[in-house]
Write a structure and sequence with these properties.
Layout: H1 3-10, H2 21-32, H3 36-39, H4 41-48, H5 50-77, H6 84-92, H7 94-126, E1 134-138, E2 141-144, H8 145-163, H9 166-194, H10 207-222, H11 227-230, H12 239-265, H13 279-288, H14 291-325, H15 344-356, H16 364-393, H17 409-426, H18 440-458, H19 470-483
Antiparallel strand pairs: 1-2
Helix pairs in contact: 2-9, 2-12, 2-14, 4-5, 4-12, 5-10, 5-12, 5-16, 5-17, 6-7, 6-16, 7-8, 7-14, 7-15, 7-16, 7-18, 8-15, 9-12, 9-13, 9-14, 10-16, 12-13, 13-14, 14-15, 16-17, 16-18
Keywords: Cell membrane, Membrane, Transmembrane, Transmembrane helix
Pfam families: AA_permease_2
GO molecular function: transmembrane transporter activity
């Protein structure tokens, strides 16, 4: 065997195992801490009140913990790149696997596009004269060439980093997440030193509708722990430890968001929230009585954009790669870079989408959030069902990390995860007075993406049953059809 062949064998599918404990943990945690905490905290406080917003995130965090626990067992048992793709094809067959994987890929890409729009929005706070050469107006939001190019150039740079290899991407992730944690501690210090308890009033506002509105954005803000399973073949850790990192990353994100909401509420009266565009930044500036600290929070917001963007580009590109090598979507997406061993074509495709997103203007931020959230929840629900199916059908399956012990505790956790994610999805449907009100643009984005997935789904050959060999059988049938 030549050295080149030996390296290829060690890499399994061709990926390089380059990520350690901190790398993997910060990929998951950093993915969940994007830019939303900078631009949306004021809306959460106004919509649900201080305690209402905190409880909404606690409830959402509990749901995500159950889902994360389910993922922890699955990633330990099936530690392959592509996460959901592998769990669902083994549990429920190729078509369900494609639908679920395509759904969460759309959710991931929506985060990437969101961050591409958030970069110029943040830069405008630091550089007020950024807007030049007006192009057009989208939903009453003017789009300027110089403004949009900030997001486009950043998209090209992040894509380049990811093409260069997972180790470089993880080094960037670790450095930037460390800065994010420092910003969180500064906000905690500012709230304890310069905040006023009276400012936290009202503790509740908006009633059930306000609470539901905050809960509805939680899937978008907490999505990211599942990026760890996408990179499983690039993590040089025992499968059981990879599974535990999934749950730890969720708990870290819950703590981060609650600290941000609580400390921001102490900075200024609720009546002033509407007068601030970036409440979290202005909160720290107010508590320390210096504009410098507000700019530091904006720097933290930029850091969050990079960590989230970087992680979801990694996750979505590996999901597309996994679907492509299984013959589910065009093989073009399954190409690995000959030198860096990264899914180069998938990265380029997602990079192009993110480079175009800023030209939709700032109004696209809300549309993209709302389009991605239900897609993410669909995938979480299907993975929860797949977990229950595998527990029932393959009890002897090797599970290095078995949640709930040897009793039926694991099944109970799986059922709770399935019920909670289904209930969360129902919140998006306009069938109750408390349903989240999504704009038609969001439904259009959501529907278009799923329609493409359904098209690919019905092109798959029939007769392939779920099980350990489902992907091998599917690929053999696809290759046979392509030769005809």
């Amino acid at each position: 065997m030549t050295q080149q062949q030996s390296v290829a064998t060690d890499r399994g599918h061709g990926f390089v195992k380059a990520l350690g404990t901190v790398d993997a943990l910060f990929i998951g945690f950093g993915a969940m801490i994007g830019f939303g905490w900078v631009v949306l905290t004021g809306e959460w406080l106004s919509g649900a009140g201080t305690l209402g917003a905190i409880l909404a995130f606690a409830v959402g965090g509990v749901i995500m913990c159950f889902v994360g626990t389910v993922y922890s067992e699955l990633v330990a048992a099936i530690p392959h790149a592509g996460g959901e793709h592998n769990y669902l094809i083994r549990a429920m067959g190729p078509r369900v696997s494609l639908f679920g994987s395509w759904a969460i890929t759309g959710g991931y890409i929506s985060v990437v596009m969101f961050e591409a729009v958030a970069v110029p929005k943040t830069a405008l706070y630091l550089f007020p004269n950024l807007e030049h050469i007006k192009l057009w107006t989208v939903a009453e939001s003017d789009v300027y060439l110089t403004w949009a190019l900030v997001g486009t150039v950043t998209a090209i740079f992040i894509s380049w980093i990811n093409i260069r290899g997972v180790k470089l991407a993880s080094l960037v992730q670790t450095f930037v997440v460390s800065f994010l944690i420092i910003v969180a501690f500064l906000l905690l210090t500012g709230g304890l030193v310069g905040g006023e308890t009276a400012n936290a009033e009202p503790l509740f506002t908006g009633g059930g509708a306000g609470f539901i509105a905050v809960v509805a954005v939680v899937p978008f803000l907490f999505v990211g722990f599942d990026v760890i399973p996408q990179s499983a073949e690039e993590i040089k850790l025992p499968p059981a430890k990879i599974g535990k990192l999934v749950v730890i990353s969720v708990l870290m994100a819950v703590a981060f968001y609650i600290i941000i909401i609580w400390m921001t509420s102490l900075a200024m009266p609720a009546s002033e929230l509407a007068t601030h565009d970036l409440v979290t930044a202005d909160a720290l500036a107010t508590m320390f009585n210096s504009a410098f600290w507000g700019k530091l929070v904006i720097a933290g917001g930029l850091a969050g954009i990079i960590t989230s963007w970087n992680a979801f580009l990694m996750g979505s590109s590996r999901l597309m790669w996994a679907m492509a090598v299984a013959g589910m979507i065009p093989a073009w997406f399954g190409k690995l870079h000959p030198r860096y061993r990264t899914p180069v074509n998938s990265i380029i495709f997602i990079g192009i989408l993110s480079a175009l997103a800023p030209f939709l203007g700032a109004a696209a931020l809300g549309w993209i959030v709302d389009a991605g959230s239900p897609a993410i929840v669909i995938a979480y629900f299907l993975v929860s069902i797949g977990f229950l199916v595998l527990r029932k059908r393959e009890p002897a399956m090797d599970r290095p990390l078995r949640i709930g012990g040897k009793s039926n505790g694991g099944m109970v956790i799986g059922v709770i995860s399935a019920v909670l994610t289904l209930a969360l999805f129902v919140l998006y449907l306009p069938i109750t007075p408390w349903s989240a009100q999504l704009a038609w643009q969001s439904w259009a984005m959501f529907g278009l993406w799923l329609a493409v997935g359904v098209f690919f789904m019905f092109r798959l050959p029939t007769g392939v049953k779920a099980g350990p060999n489902a992907e091998i059988e599917l690929l053999a049938k696809v290759k046979s059809l392509r030769r005809k």
